[in-house]
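Objective 1.3, modelling of assemblies. Example input:
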Amino acid sequence: MSAYLLRRVPSALLVLLLASFVIFLILRLIPGDPATTLAGPDAPPGTVEAIRAQLGLDQPVLTQYLDWLGSLLTGDLGPSYTIGGDVAELIGNGFGATVELAVGALLLVVALGLALGILGATARSRPVRAAVRILTTTALSVPPFVTGVVLVLTFAVALRWLPAGGHLSVLEAPDLGAQYLLLPSVCLSLPSAAVLGRYLKDGLERALDEDYVRTATALGVSRRRIVWRHALPNALPPAVTVLGMQTGHLLGGAILVEAIFAWPGLGQLAQQGVVLRDYPVVQALLLLLVAVFVATQLLTDIAYAWLDPRIRW
Amino acid sequence: MTTQTETRSGVATGTLARLRARNPYLNGLLSPRGITGLIIVGLLALAGLLAPALADFAPTAQSDQALHSPGGAHPLGTDEVGRDLFSRVLHGIRNDLAIILIAVPVAALAGSLLALLATASRAADAVVQRFFDLVLAFPGLILALAITAIMGPGFLPVVIVIALAETPGFGRVLRAGILVQREREYAVAARVGGAGRARVLIRHVLPNAVDPLIVQLAISLPVAVFIEGAMSFLGVGVRPPEPTLGSVLSQSMPYLSSHPWYAAAPLITVTGLVLGFTLIAEALNKGVRR
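Predicted structure (tokens):
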């Protein structure tokens, strides 16, 4: 295992370094000078020069890049251009909310995905199988913003059970916080749960066709035990890979879901940063997203190797 | 499988039946699912096309009748600055279709060219494949934010984001098709017979490899509607006041509890469009797999 880690971690770090360079370079290529924007339209030329020097924009691009890398390592990302406040602080504020949303959605993805997969593969009644199929197809084909509006109209406007949007930390107020969290995380989790369910169903169906299942059945092992002890462990590894890939999509989806439910997370910050052209914020966020993405893939590979002892490093 | 096709062509003898038996796509499209999809998309497309004639008001014309309930001169009511929602939804369909009809063919063309490049040499293949992996690995909306950060919001960035996000799909499908077909006996025979590489590719391999692109095309349409809508919700879509289905729906969000009817029309229309496209894609796919 440690040899495997030694091989995987450096390559992940290299990808990250490359990504940081690309992100930095692309944002430098954008037309328009942030110093002029910051100074305002009527600023005397001296102010622009002063701001440029203050932000280090008069340095060569490579120096600026290395400075930025250094500041990443110390955690001091400097001031934001247009949103106001420190970049590190802004990201810290949004991070908690987004993590809450992502964790809530991920739990739902696993629960719903398992339920859909197991029911789809093992239920004997036709209506149940049809319901699973319809739910899966709907969750996959309806865009999240449609699901979001329908959820709000149903549970917030018509039934008045849950709030339509906003955020309250689950850590500070578990009861109320969970109420705010429920609709956004359901909205975010549905497409990924459907994908996971589909893979799990296929894997289970294949596993249930195997000889060892027939042997176990012949030996009188209960159906429930066969599904949970024998078929499921063999269907899990590919499903975990899918789950890993879906985690990336959850991150992308979170941006949209945060906009729908006025959830003050990193997605909202990213949107603000783009609309207000706040490059330090956008730059740091893009790199953070890539980092999370790379880390997820690394964890997925490790989990895969752990779940399937046949994989050797 | 074969018997089914035989009975079908045996029982029905019309020209259409013969065409259906010969062409799996047409056969799939004419299934109940496909016809439903075609009708939904057809009606919506017609409404969008005729938008200027059908709507009494310009989609961007404001009036002092803000948030007017449906009825009277405004069959779907008005929005928060008194614009006619009927006109905005119809023009929204029109703008969505314009975006999709530019972006998806561009993606198909770019993907196909990259696939041709990838199958031409091993080195090119490695580069093209990594590019596809990169685009696919990035969640689409992050791509959307990055591109809008560079270009600023507008019609063109939306088209570029959709085209870029959908290029790998087309590229992978065609690349796989070419790789499979050119090892088939007929292609090998043509090569042995002395035909040049270009001739084998154009006359023999490509005609047999492009079929799956049709299904890919159908799959890409609902995804394009989805990306447009998502970008509008993020405030990086087509610039207001020009309407798209996504922007009208996202503008209705603050009024969901006070004026629920505001969201109804864009919600139903965008769902219908996605559903219609999805039905067509599924029908085509079923037709091919049969």
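Residues 92-262+287-312 of chain A form a domain with the MetI-like fold fold (CATH 1.10.3720.10).
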